[in-house]
Amino acid sequence: MKWNDHMLDGSILLNQKASYLKGNGIAATVYYWGAQSGFVGNKPHKHSFFEICYVLKGTGSYWEQEEHYPLEDGSLFLSRPGHVHHIVTDHGMDLLFMAFDIDAEGCSDECKALFAKLRRARSVFIPNAQELPVIRLWTTLLLMANEMQPLFHDGISGLGLSLITSVERTFADKEPSAAVVSRSSQAASLVYQAKLFIRDNLSQPLRLNDVAEHLHISSRHLSRLFLAELGQSCSVYIRKERIRKAGILLTETDLSIKDISRQTGFDTVHYFTSVFSAEMGMPPAKFKHKFQQLHH
């Protein structure tokens, strides 16, 4: 992936329109979105927030405390609050960067716990990150911001929050027991099973009753579980999952819009286009075209 002036333009627009992001169970302040060609390094310093950086092109070194990491094309690294760090480069580099922190008042207890653990993450550097979801989200967001429309703010906010949660998933310490603990209660376990069933059956006309019958519980009980555990209704979750899968198929396959609408459970291309546009701020064909512009 190479430097694109739209990345800088996108960063400027996101600084104006996406400095505070709020969703179900999570809220975050973005202190700055950045893109710089020919970055020449900086002196040791620290922040009170998280900062992620991605090297589009160039070589150098990232230092955190006494640890040293070699930088090259595709390097992704995370600076944690309170940790002294700096970047060294002899010939400059093209760099994307973004600084954020969660807003505790707008976050669920689970969200606060996850980002508290991220502050103590053992791994802060990932080489060859070009194909990671966090990078695809980030670069797509920068490009899409260039054509922000009146109804596109929710789509930008959703993508921004997806990027931040993707940062957490990318750098969080992987502890096998954590998943077991997080699903220890019966309620959380049922919601987890429901999410798996929905994910694997998105091509079907899923309804609340269908999911409830699969779990052998009442629709009313399942509805309460989704609201309590996820802060949204089951129908909203299903719709967002359909759009999430559609986004993946649009960017990673050559399937037609008709085939994608069918695989994601929409009765007609018209209805699929309408729902996708409402969620993402642009029709699926344009979304695919803009993604290809950035990645080819």
From TrEMBL:
Check the record and name the Pfam families matching this protein.
AraC_binding, HTH_18
Q: Where do the HTH araC/xylS-type domain residues begin and end?
A: 192-290
Q: Which domain of life is it from?
A: Bacteria
Q: Does the keyword DNA-binding apply?
A: yes
Cross-referenced Gene3D superfamilies, in alphabetical order? Homeodomain-like, Jelly Rolls
GO MF terms held by the record? DNA-binding transcription factor activity; sequence-specific DNA binding
Q: Which UniProt keywords apply?
A: DNA-binding, Transcription, Transcription regulation
- Spell out the protein name for this chain: AraC family transcriptional regulator
